[in-house]
Each structure stands twice: as structure tokens, then as C-alpha cells.
Amino acid sequence: MSIDYLDGNALAGPLGELFAVDLTVAVGTCAGCGNSGPVAGLRVYGPAPGLVGRCAGCEEVMVRLVRTPDAVWLDLRGTLSLRIPMPDDQQGG
Amino acid sequence: MRRLPWRVAELVEVRHETTTARTLVFEVPGWPGHLAGQHVDVRLTAPDGYSTQRSYSVAAPEQGERVELTVELVRDGEVSPYLTEILEIGDQVEIRGPVGGWFVWRPERVAPVLLVAGGSGMVPLMAMIRARREAGSSAPFRLIYSVREPDQRFYLDELASPDPGLDVAYIFTRKTPDGWARPPGRIMPPDLAGASTDIDSFVCGPTGFVEAAADQLIALGHAAERIRTERFGPTGG
């Protein structure tokens, strides 16, 4: 068994550079097998040349994130949907 | 304004935990606060402009602009040797965060908690234990802390007289103290068995340890959605 991976908690910093909400608590659905679970639970490989987040169920790539000196590439083609918790007190503001 | 800015952090206090690990307390002006279990990124920049960063869990709950990390030396690492052996009081690094809202314990949560630590995976769990104490929470806590040898335990004095409602158990994988009943060995289901599975579990450590412990909890009847995990993997240190 390969254990040379981290988990989606390691995406918190890189994604935090981009998004106003913490996407590691979002529930992602895998486009490969349909499994869903928190982004924090993905198997994450990296960090060079970028971070690759795989479904813990089927190992399909759900997230690719590459930081270049002047941009961030975010590839989510393996993610069917993201359900982002949005408590009442954050609505309508 | 960047969403997650790098902030200058000045080292103000050092505590030695083991021969290879120390706790570093930084003063970080503008620090927005954090939850127990969250982590930060630490960035070092050399005089020639080369910079590199690593993630570390915060070891203590929010305390103004103080951010406390416990760092274990990773031989041949790029960042940890500097943090554990060279950095002195008054020196500066850059810190950004906090990040990660999933592997966190909130003091308003009253459910019983099982903490399972492998090696330096103890750090974010210690933040939870300290947050519980600070909040005066009565949520029952049980800590199972696996280390190779007795002298590799962090926070030994603090855990020697645990708070009321906190139960502490050690697992030694290579060498035990004299007269220790459990032979040295990796974590096994009997180590994790307990009266109730109606608890929140937090498991943190190297990837192999986390996989083993989480699988054992599920086999013991714990619901997967109540087990939160954080894996270190073979960090570049």
C-alpha cells in the first residue's frame, strides 16, 4: 500500500489564498465513482510540481492545484460538485 | 489586500520538549486568532531570496497575538533543522494562517472525545486539550498517544497531571518504560476499545499510523463521519 500522501487538510493554505470560505470543510462528489466526502479527506500528493487531490474511494484525481510565480492553476474536472456549508449567520449579511 | 497574508512573526519564547523537538512561541502582530486543531504555514527566506515553507499545527488555543508551534526535527529537512536548532529569541520568520477548518475541536461541543496521536501528531491534539481546559469544558476527553520510546513524548509534565475528565494512555512502539505491562508494538484494536462508540474522534500522525488507527476505529463500530483525521505523510521537514 502506498502511504506517500497527505490529506486534504494540506490544501487549506493554498485554497485559502484563493477563496473566502474554507473549502476543506466542503463536501466534494467524485466525478469518477460518485463518492462524496469532505475535501479534507482527499488523498493529497505533492507538493511539487503541484498538489493533486485524489478520491479516497477510487483514487480518481478530483483536484489539481499548481502555483506558478504569477498565477494559480486550479483543475476541478474530477469533482462533480462541491457542497459548501453556509450557516445562517453568513447569509444576507 | 491578500486574503491570506504573510505576517512577520518574532520568536519570543522557547521550551524544549524532547532532545529533537521544541516549542516555539511567536508574537504575530495582526494575528486574527485560531481554533484548536488548525495549522499555519511558516516561510523562511534566505538572504539570497530563496524561500521555502512548511505547515505546522498550532499547539495552543488562541491567546492574543501569540502563536505556539511544536516542531520536531526532521533530519535532512529544509525547515525543521532551522526551527529546532538555529532560530533564537528575537529572530523573525513569516507565518500565514490559520488554515484548515475541518480538523478542529470547538469548546461549545459537549460530546465525548477520543484523541489518537502518533508521534508529533500530538501537537494539534494538545491544542484541543488546552482549549478544553481554558474553556472549563466538561466534555470527557480520552487521549491515546503512541510514540517510539518514552523520552519522545511531548508535554510530559503537563500530561502527567491531567485535567479532570481527561484520561491519558501511552503506547510505546519500540521501547517501554521498565515494568510497563503492554509490550512494545504498533497500535492495535484493544488499545482503542472503550465503553462507547458514541464519540468524536480526532486522529493525527504519520499517514500509515492514521490509516491503521482509523480503520481499527471503524472496525470497532465507530461511524466514519465522526472520525476526523490529519495525516503528515513523509514531510520534507
From TrEMBL, chain A:
InterPro entries: DUF6510. It comes from the Bacteria. This is Uncharacterized protein. It comes from Acrocarpospora corrugata. The lineage of its organism: Bacteria, Bacillati, Actinomycetota, Actinomycetes, Streptosporangiales.
Automatic annotation (TrEMBL), chain B:
Pfam families: FAD_binding_6 (PF00970), NAD_binding_1 (PF00175). GO terms for molecular function: 2 iron, 2 sulfur cluster binding; oxidoreductase activity. Residues 4-105 form the FAD-binding FR-type domain. CDD domains: FNR_iron_sulfur_binding_3. Its cofactor is FAD. Keywords: 2Fe-2S, Iron, Iron-sulfur, Metal-binding. This is Oxidoreductase. It comes from Acrocarpospora corrugata.
